[in-house]
Amino acid sequence: MTTQSPFDRLAQQWDDDPVKLQRAGAVASAIAQRTVRGGTWLDYGAGTGALGLALLGHADHLVLADSSTGMVAASRAKIEAAGLADSVRAVRLDLSTDDTVGEYFDGVASLLALHHIADAGRVVGRLAGLLRPGGWLALADLDAEDGSFHGHGRGVRPEHHGFGRAEVGDWLARAGLVDPDFSTPWLNHKDGRDYPLFLAVARRPLEPVEAVGLH
What we know:
By secondary structure, the chain is an alpha/beta fold. It is 28% helix and 27% strand. It has helices at 6-10, 18-34, 50-55, 69-82, 120-128, 165-174; strands at residues 40-44, 61-66, 88-92, 105-111, 131-142, 178-190, 193-203. The protein has a 7-stranded mixed β-sheet with strand order 3-2-1-4-5-7-6. The longest helix has 17 residues, at 18-34. Residues 211-215 have low confidence and may be disordered.
């Protein structure tokens, strides 16, 4: 019998919070302002696909990937209901354990997934390795905080309480990416406090470089 993860159990209610959709829209807009339109994009740790679907139009085709089977099922239901099967698909993928992906992308985006990944730096390297030459990596997550933000319960426990931007910049550099750009596309408001969300965008050069890739 397969054990459900907390995200599997939460998938059907995930989009009930309108703030999640507003946040995804704000991050997608910021990504679109900083990257080149077109091609195929991967939304990693996509959940129910809010970020990726907000990028549709900036991206011609999308792959929504998540390690939670419940989230993937919710994404597939949204794709079918919206009639988007020709341009969007949802797959299960966990780069912490899966060895191969089998395709490359013009852009890879991720929203609030990294802080749930134990070896986040390694996964950033693997995401960078999925980029075609000239492709873009766009990572949005919490700035480092004291742990107060994740007092939400529901069985979802983070691996990290956000990240320092210098640390993320180092991951991007070690992955062989260039032209890093950091911005703050969203402020999370909780219990009278603001928790900034950073967006880190960097590019794979057209020329081959040493990179962490898929190792």
